[in-house]
Amino acid sequence: MSNSPSFSLPAGLPRLDRCAVMGVVNVTLDSFSDGGLWHDPAKAIAHGLALRARGADLVDVGGESTRPGAQRVPEEEELRRVLPVVRELAAAGMVVSVDTMRASVAEQAVEAGAAIVNDVSGGLADPAMARVVADTGAPFVVMHWRGQSADMERLAVYRDVVADVVAELTVRVDALLAAGVKEDQLILDPGLGFAKTAEHNWALLGRLDALTALGRPVLVAASRKRFLGTLLADPQSGALRPARERDDATAAVSALSAQAGAWAVRVHDVSGTADAVRVVAAWQHAARQGVREGL
Ligand code: PMM
């Protein structure tokens, strides 16, 4: 059974006795499940505060959609979307992560109060990212990534997806360390849905231990993703379950990820997951107690 963390948590992150809940604030027009809803910074700020009230331990603010086929947003526009939201939520005392592939955005977001840099490219998209992460000392989410969203579907070819993702993440970690990033800044993420089929995603979730074994905190971001829509497709028509109706399945993935030792789960609907991770913590606590008492 996986429970007490086997990793050192980067400085500045909340210390919890359970899996952390990261709420998603997409300041975008085209994210697959909530694009356009919080595009206005004022609405995004209100949404971030509402996520805290529902149980988010931290929020991830992003200004660029990464859904399959998405086109890049210009840097100026990304800054315009993200900075006011990061600034206000950090000022309200929240732990804020900035979801960006651009070093300039990461740097300015950290100046505005972001505590974490979440880069879906793991530093591959922008060669200046490693330096910014090293200089700021911010915790850095290194997601497994093989290429930009516009052509990631053709990159979903693996010999053994678990072994290949572990090997490719290890190469990224080594490159970041060589660039001056400290090991205890790093958080790993399997990159569900990024150049991965439904089968690849399930294989990675089923073997999350292969990632936690690398000794760093692991972030799981399955929320509302297509592979859940496929799993729950209408048996008659074959139509995928719509993105907004995948939150119960997301909470189930959150519970199982927490049980498997994930440091945090990144979700759109916070309430179900906030309950789920508390159930897991109580269950694990009782199991430890039972072992101590020789039951
Ligand atoms: N997925 C999305 C965006 N950001 N960040 C991390 N670390 N891991 C992910 O899997 C990830 C991410 C895409 O989903 P969204 O459109 O719901 O934000």
What topology does this entry show?
Layout: E1 20-26, H1 41-53, E2 58-62, H2 75-91, E3 96-99, H3 103-111, E4 116-119, H4 129-136, E5 140-143, H5 161-178, E6 186-189, H6 198-206, H7 208-212, E7 219-220, H8 226-231, H9 247-259, E8 264-267, H10 270-292
Parallel strand pairs: 1-2, 1-8, 2-3, 3-4, 4-5, 5-6, 7-8
Helix pairs in contact: 1-2, 2-3, 3-4, 9-10
The structure holds pterin-6-yl-methyl-monophosphate (PMM).
Pterin-6-yl-methyl-monophosphate binds next to strand 1 and strand 5.
List keywords for this structure.
single chain; 295 residues; alpha/beta; TIM Barrel; eight-stranded parallel sheet; 10 helices; 41% helix; 12% strand; globular; binds pterin-6-yl-methyl-monophosphate
Order of helices and strands: EHEHEHEHEHEHHEHHEH
Which runs of at least 5 residues are low in confidence (pLDDT < 50)? none
Calculate Rg over CA atoms: 18 Å
Spatial strand sequence of the major β-sheet: 6-5-4-3-2-1-8-7
- Helix proportion range: 40-55%
* Mean pLDDT reading: 94
The shape is: globular
Structural class: alpha/beta
The structural domain count equals 1
* Count of helix runs: 10
Number of β-strand runs: 8
Give a verbal description of the structure.
The chain has 295 residues and is of the alpha/beta class. It has one domain (20-292): TIM Barrel (Alpha-Beta Barrel). Helices cover 41% and strands 12% of the residues. It has 10 helices and 8 strands. It has helices spanning 41-53, 75-91, 103-111, 129-136, 161-178, 198-206, 208-212, 226-231, 247-259, 270-292; strands at 20-26, 58-62, 96-99, 116-119, 140-143, 186-189, 219-220, 264-267. Strands 6-5-4-3-2-1-8-7 form an 8-stranded parallel sheet. The longest helix is centred in the last third of the chain and has 23 residues, at 270-292. Pterin-6-yl-methyl-monophosphate (PMM) is lined by residues 24, 26, 31-33, 65-67, 99, 118, 120, 141, 143, 189, 191-192, 219, 221, 223, 266. Pterin-6-yl-methyl-monophosphate binds at residues 24, 26, 31-33, 65-67, 99, 118, 120, 141, 143, 189, 191-192, 219, 221, 223, 266.
